[in-house]
Each structure stands twice: as structure tokens, then as C-alpha cells.
User: Fold these one by one.
Assistant:
Number 1:
Amino acid sequence: MTESLDVVVIGAGLAGLACARELGGHGLDVRVLEASDAVGGRVRSDRVDGFTLDRGFQVLNTGYPELPRFVDLAGLDLRAFDPFLGVHLDGRRVLIGNPLQRPTSLTTLLSVPVGGFYGRLATGVYAARCVALPTGRLKGRSDVSSAEAWRSAGIPTDMVNGVLRPFFAGVLLEQGMTTSRRFTDLMIRMFALGRSTVPSKGMQALPERIASALPEGTIELSTPVRRVDSRQVETTDGRVSARAVVVCTDPWTAASLLPDRMSLPEARGVTTVYHSAPDFPEATGTLLLDGDSSLLANTIALSKAAPEYAPKGRVLISSSVVHGSVPEHVDGPEVRRALARLHGTDTSHWELIATYDLPHALPGMPAPHPMRKPVRLSYDGDWVYVAGDHRDTSSLQGALVSGRRAASAVLADLGVRR
């Protein structure tokens, strides 16, 4: 294979697809080379015995401002989680609602048995400021760890350990809350303004929807890339020449293709376990957190929110454990007891469907963390372009933004009028 194109994009994850969409929309001849057998990168879904299993617990937050630029959310047929968090505290489940979505749920914040009155007030004021301040102001706040920001805001330790840490452990994939407060502040804003959802056909429907707008033949699957430089890509099938090359992979793959040109972030890992159970009265589409233990990051009867995820008469339960606190047996008695306590039912008869161990689920963002990293990297007097959530924030939003930023840089350097 010997071709000459305008741009070669390496990787058909969200960043690569967003980059290709932007470049193709300006009339450039673009080719996307993907090593795996489908689009999506880390956003993939499998079908197993009638169940839809996302590769790791993943959520599409409708508050992400970049999503409408690339996809019609209505076309994804989204299924929303219950607008509450179920937190297990002091041996009982406490429901915490979002007052912006259900004003009557404001009273649920007052029933949380941690923090005391002033601690709950401090937490509410902190969250309200994250929602009210412009995003530019949030990004400009002091770049300290989330733990330090909450401590400075007067949020008591029992509120952090009972509510904030259990929730953000599943978002940040870490227990120490060392992540930059600038990112957690933005996530508080997104969760307050948006809804946590999944597409009815699984999370992979998101990248598939974006890819469907590209011209036929743009994406070449099962095409691993061996080497890159600023004007050429070498694959297992041959070489492709281009006016620009954009590496849109995870940071660890990108670093192997661009040695000595990138600093590697710390990897955040998670293990997600899927169980099947007969329908049970306590099953709910509410995300459940354990404020009394750090064993499980979260668990949810996922098919109660998205019925299409399970065959009729069965319930699909998704549970995640952050790396660093993974027990010896992820489906052992300790995990089963925790699930029984959180879901309020006997779990001994639940069937294990699949386990996804993902050591590189997210790039870490410990403070201080630049909210944006360069998408141009110097390469022998020229440029190679890089995109991915590691160039912005470790999120779907960050991946899409980085793809658009890389495309803008390519367009500018090639002299293409926007």
C-alpha cells in the first residue's frame, strides 16, 4: 500500500474521529488508521448472552458542551440514571438528589448523616460556586489537589470520606483525591447541569455515531501503525504519505510512536465486574456508593436505567473497583457481601458474566495539571500533531476537544481557510 493524502489520523477513538470530522468538513482528504477491529478506542461495548457490556463502567454526561458539536444526542436514544445518588452511610442508604433537576430534592442534602449543619452548608456553597462561576474562572482557580481544595473550603473530613471521595473515586479512578481541583470543579458543574446516561445500544454507539458521518472508506480497521514521522506513516500493509500526521491514541501508545517527545501520565486503573440476577424488588437505576468502605467505587443495576442492556427478566449489575484497592478475588465473598449490603438483597445466586480489568483506563491528572497541553510536537524541523484526553482532560469532553484542537492546528499550518 502506497498512498498520498492530505492528513493521516492514527486512532479511531473519540479524539481521532472528532479530528477527522473537522478536517473532512474543510475538504481535506483524510484517512483514519485504527489498529483494532472497531471504532471507539477505550469507548467500546460487547454483547454477551443478550447483555450489553461496556468495557468498564462508562457514563455519557449530557452536560458536556462539546458533544452537540459532533453528535445529535437524541439520535443516541439515551437512557438516564435516576437523578439521585444512593450513599450507604452508618448502615443505611441515603438518597442525595440534584436540586437543579428536582428542586424538591434539596431536602435530601439535609438528611445526610455526616458533616453537621455547617459542613453540609460548606459543601453546598462549594458546589453552588462550581455551577455559578464561568468555566474560565473555574480553570483559573488555584491548582491544588481536590483534597486540599475541599479542606480549604471547610468541608469536614467525614463529609469528604462519606460522600465526595466515594463519588469521585469512580470518576477519577483514585482514592487519594490528588487530582487537580480544576478538573473536579468542572465535573461538579457537569454533573449538576447534565444527566448521567448511556445510549440504549451501549457506549460504543457514541463513537459509531460520529464515525457514521465520515465518507465511506475513511476508516481502515485492523491496521496497526508501526512508525510515524511528520509526513509518513508505516503500517503492516505499507506506507502512507501525507501533508500532516495526527496521532490520536492513548498516551502510552502515542509515546511508543513518538519516543522521547512526550511525557507519560500516571495510569489510573479500574476493574469492572458484571453480574446477572433475576429481577429483584430492590433493583434501581440509582448509582450506589459506599460511604462506609472503600472496597467498591460504585455499583448500579444498570439495566434498570437502560432496559436494553439485559434480556427480559434479568438484571445487569455493574460494579467497579479502583486499582489500588482491588481484592484478591473480584467476585469473592468480600465483594459479594458488599454488593448485598449496597443493593439490599441476597447476592449469593448472582451469576458472573464478565470482568474487565483496565490498568490504563484514564490518564492521571494530579495537581498541578495543565488543562491543555500542546497538540503540536516538534519532529525534525516539522510538526507531528497529537490528540487525546491526555492533551486536555481525562474525559469524553477532553477527548473531543483535543481532536478539534489538533484539527484546527493542522488547518492553520496547511493554510486551509476555516
Number 2:
Amino acid sequence: MWARGRAATEECPRSWVTPESVVWVEWYFAWKSFGGGGLAALGAKEADVMLTLEKEWREARNGNQQDF
């Protein structure tokens, strides 16, 4: 069993990391390094990914996620 924050699974989460996942994370950090703005210019999926990763980043940075 693996759990972190609000997420839990009985399978290793690393097995779910895909090349596309890595691309999204790299794109997020590039987006953030250039100011993290301009969501209106992104498509719905891209904006959703950026907002989701930003939320997770802030929670992790603020220590709101705990490993069980």
C-alpha cells in the first residue's frame, strides 16, 4: 500500500510514470520558470495539467503532504 496526501494505491506509483508524464512535468517547470502565466492561451488539457501540477507543487512545498 502506498499513500501520499489524498492519493493511495496498492500498486507502485512509479510503474504509472509514462514518457508523457515526464513531458508534462518538464513542461510545467519550464512554464513556471518563465513566470507561470498565460493559462488563457493554453488548451483546456494543458491548463488543467499546469493548474494540477501547481497545486501539488504548492502543497508539497508547504509540507501539506505526508507519507504514510
Number 3:
Amino acid sequence: MPESQYHLQSKDSLVVLVLLALVVGVLSGFVGAVFRITLQRADQLRDSLIAWAHGGSFAGFFFIVGLSAAAALIAAWLARRFSPHASGSGIPHVEAVLHGQVPPAPYRLVPIKFVGGILAIGSGLALGREGPTVQMGSSIAHFVGQVFRRDWPDCRVLIAAGAGAGLATAFNAPIAGAIFVLEELVQKFEHRIAIAALAASATAIAVARTLLPDAPDFIVAPLSYGDPVTRPLFFVLGGVIGLLAVTYNSTLLATVAAAERLRRLPVEARAGLIGAAVGTLGWFVPTLIGGGDAITQRTLANTETLTLVPVAFLVRFLLGPVSYAASTPGGLFAPLLTVGAQSGLLFGAACHFVFPSVDIQPEAFAVVGMAAFFTGVVRTPLTGIVLVTEMTASVTMLLPMLGACCVAMLVPTLMRNAPIYDSLRERTLRSERGRQGEIGRKQTLRARH
């Protein structure tokens, strides 16, 4: 084939790919927006039911606990029975697909992830909406690629673009969605994927904003650039958060491993017990359960009683790993941002107490803490910085974020602590090998009989 003809076909293929990425963005943006709206309604319903049940004393208590347990149990059952890949975040599975380590999940994952995510997060589990939207976006993209009979290299590009569109819709952050695809999902810069991810994220946000408010997820008061003497404090914050990130990763993996060692207890029973525990917490402190957006907003506004923030921080630090161990659909990002904001606010308040003569805004440390903790856990600093900037519409903290994220990434790297999605992807691959082995054994037994 002449070189000029090859280049012409390559350009035509790229144009078709971009057009399909626009379609993927439209579909992913619509599904993601409906998912967000439904989650908001589920959160409102949960809060209303808890308030109503408090009038029923013990009967009301058991109603809330039973309802949370049932919702978590059903979510885990749906994933196990109909789409095992739908359990957990889903992002490690998408990464494995893009690296050619596992095949794409069947298309029934989308409704299972949607319904299961609503039940799990709506029941009060500390899980994020981004995991479901990322995995649903990638599955939708694979379906589009199959419908238009694209080969695997093109389908891979579309899957990556759909995942980015899902993240963009989850947090109203189109640039972060595209960056996340390159920095985390494929972990290298590929021109075709970059172009398709930008196209899909752009159309996803355009569609989502017709259904959702066209505003940043969090409202942050104007922040000053701060006194130059405060700059070193952000590096110290990065070091502290780097240590917290290592602890969080270890806690999450240990909690999941402990849950899996309870082999005699079905996954649905484990999810039901965790749901009951979360329902009990919700009965006494309903403001501490759920995805965490409301907690993050209160933290960024610094409206919480400062003496209660350490307790809330400890609860959320443990609640995220415990909720993830339930094996229900749900992500990690939103809970990470909550813990990051709380840790940043506590650090900023401590600095303000130690250096009363220095102009220190604890809220500024909360914003930086979100990006730093995200970076320490996931090891994607660009995604963390851009994501928090888009979600808060605040650019004054970009320079402090750079310093804090640098140290927050340095500390876990020096301690040889693996990024959380690398660890979870290894678990996904082991589960997939075990599942395939079990299928093979069953087929062998059937053949013998």
C-alpha cells in the first residue's frame, strides 16, 4: 500500500473514531447525569426516612438498620449473581481491560452497576459515584465500538474515552476526566486516546449540564494567596498526608482481605452486616454516612465545630475501607476527597493555633489536602490537582497544591507503598483467574457426566 494512501486511511479512521467518541460522550454523559440525580434523590430519601424513623423509638431504629442492611445485601447479590465485575470500584477492571489482561465485561454490567450503586451508596455506604460512572462509560463505549464493527485497537480507544467521560460527568470535571485516562488508565500519552478522551469528555459534560446545575460541585470562599511564610507549611502538609495515604491504602487492603477470609459467610451476608453497621451509625449521626459530598462542603466552608472534626475524620477514615469491603458497586474518589479535606482543615487549624500571628486560612489547607490525599493514595498528581481545581473553581491554591502533592507522592514512593489501583487490579486479576478456573472445573465435570 502506498504511504500516501496509508496516511489517508489513518486520518479517515481517526475522524471516525472521534465521531464515535462524541456519541460515547453523549450516552455516557446522559447515563452519568441520571445516575447522579438518582443518587441525590436516594440521599434525600435516606435522610427523610431517618428523621421520620426517630419518632418510632426502637421500631424506627430497627427499620433504618434493616433497610440499610437489605439495600447493601441486594446490591452485593446483584453483582455476584449477574455481573461479578460490577462489584467494587470498577476502575481496576477497566485498567485490566485496557492493558489486555481481561476481556471487557458483558453489557449487562451497566444496569447492574447503576442499580447496585444506587442501593449501596443510597444505603449510606461511604462509596463514590465515580467508580460506577467510569465503568458504565467504558461498557457503553465498548458497545458502541461493537455496533459500528470497530477492531480491538479502536474499541480500546473508545473504552478509555468512555471511562474518561464517566469521570468527567461524576465530578463535573471534563479536563480531569481526560487527564485521568492518560495518567492512570493507560499510564502513557497516546495521541488517539487523548483526542478521543477530550471529545468524549466534552460532549459528556455538555449533555450532563442540561440535566445538572452548571456549577462547581463545591462552593469555596475566595482564598488569598497567603503569606509567603506559609508556603513551607504546605510541604509539611504533603508529608503528613503522604503518611496518611500509606496508612489508608494499607487499611483498605487489610479490610478487604479480612472480609474475604470469611469464606463461610456469603458475600451478601457480609454486605448486609456492613450495611447494618452503617445504618446504626446513620441512626445516631446521619451526617457522617453516604458518599461524603455534604461533609466535604461543610469542611471546605469551615462550618463544623472544630472539636468534632477529628472524630468525623477518624470515622470517615475507617468507614471508607469498611464500606469497600462490602463488595457492592461503588468507588473510592469521593470518600478520598472527604478525608483529604478533613485532614487539610485539621492541619491548617493546628498551624493557625501554633502561629497565631501568621495569616493562615484553614480552608486553604482543606482544598490543598483534597488534592494531596488523592495524589498520595492514587499517585496521579495531575488528575488530583486538576480535579480539585475544577470541583472548587479555585485556582489560587495551584502553587501550594504542587508542593503538597509532590511530597504526598514522594513519601509513599520512598516507602514502596503501591498505588491503590495497582493493588486492586492485582486482586481483580487473581479473582478473574479463580473465576475462570472454577468455570473450567464445572465444564470438565459436566463433560465427564
Number 4:
Amino acid sequence: MKRVWIWLLLMSLMIVGCNKPPTFLGGIPRDKEYKTGISLSPSTTEFMVSLFYATALVGRTASCNYPSNLSKVEIVAAVKPNYERIAKIKPDVIVFDGTIYNDTDKEKIKQLGIDIFEFNPKTIKEYNEQLQLWAAKIGAETSVDELVIRVKNLVIANNSQKPSPALKVAALMSGDSKDYMIAGSGSFLADVIRNSGADLVAPDAPNFVPLSIEMLIKDNPDIIITSGDPEVILKDSRLSTVKAVKNRLVAKIDPDIMLRTGVRVETILRDLGNLVRKTASKQ
């Protein structure tokens, strides 16, 4: 009789266990499982493929180019999302970088009736927090925590080795012309620069804004990073008195790394931190 009782107890535990919802690290139940997803920004595509591979990527933008194995993923957005195509695919979730869509676009995305996750960090702290929040929803805590730890360690290393006096860094976008855009103090890139062990040269703005040549000359950065051709800046006679130009310290950063909040944030934190320290050691 005792054996029968034990057997019944084990069976009841098995039945209860089978009916439990999926859980993530720490034993907290997830609301639902996201088996398929569409990414509407290059930054979130980097995450979906590199870290969140448990959720199959079934749609991307025409600008998504990293990692390289995206050729078989359907393009569902060019300048704007193809809402009809997305509705037909019916992914479990849509993820996107909120900085590249306006309120009207976001409302149209919501009207599809599909779960969404908007990734929109303004600081490295928010970047880490939002990554971990999304990872908790899909059970990718381990891979995300590894990235977050590396990013935090780079921030600590860069700030602990900040030169004294500090070097000043500005971030410009330029094309073939001499019309520049500069990263504003409220942008994510501005926070990356602050955490590279440098002081920031930037106007009070949330994102990139047209550059004031007079401001740049007055603030006189030691280093300029750019997503364009450094020679355009170096050969601009209006900037000839700027320290970074005089010393030819205008460094090109891959625009896909400089302008995205993807998995390669750690790359620019490391490379810019090294550049700041190397420059300071030669002065």
C-alpha cells in the first residue's frame, strides 16, 4: 500500500510539472514563448541573430547586414516597414530600435496586434538593462549576461584609466561635402564617448544635429571620430586650427558600429578607449 501511495505521489508531481508554464533563470514564469520574430532595425537584428537565436528571425530590414548570414531572411522593411507582409508572416514578436521610427510608424506597428519590444537606450546603463529585460522574456539570460559583463568591464577600465588632463572627443558624420552633423550630448554615442575615458565635445541635443564650426573651433577637441572619410575633415580649411585636425587625430569608425546600438558596442568602447589612452601617452 505504501508503494502504491508513493507511486501516486510521483505521478501527481509529474502531471503538475508538465502543466507548468515555461520558466527562465530564477524560476520566474515567462508570459509566453517567442519562437519567431521580425527585426525592424539593424541594431536589433544583430541581437536577434547573435544572442537571441532561440527566437527564429523571419524578417529584417534592407539595411541589416550583420552578422553576414542574413541572406535567407526575408526583407520586410526598406525606408518603411511593409505592414501587409509582416501581418501575413505573423511573427510572435516584433523588435526594433525606437530611435529610427517616428510616433506614426510606431503606432502602425502596434496596430498589427503583434507583441513588440522597443529597444531605445540613451546610455550604456540603459543598454545593459534593456538587453537583460528582453533576454528575460525569451530565456537568453546567459548569453546576454556575458555581453553585459564585458561592456561593464570596459566602462570600468576606461574610466579608471582616464587621462589627466582629460582629452576631448567629438563625433561627426560627414559625406563628400563639408556639411557635418555632430553627436548631441543626449545621444547614445555621447555616452559611449564619456565612458571611453574622454570628455565630450557636443551641443545640447538628443541626437545628431548640424555642426557649428565656431563651436568646434572654440571647444577644440583633441580627437574627432567620424563615420565618413577623415580626409574631408582634415582638408577643411575652416577647421585647420582645431587640435584634432592639426595633429591628424581624425579617426574613422565603421558607421555600422558607430551609429548602431548593437552587439558591437563593446568594440567601439574598446577601440575608442585604446585610442584615447594611446593619444594621451604621446602628449
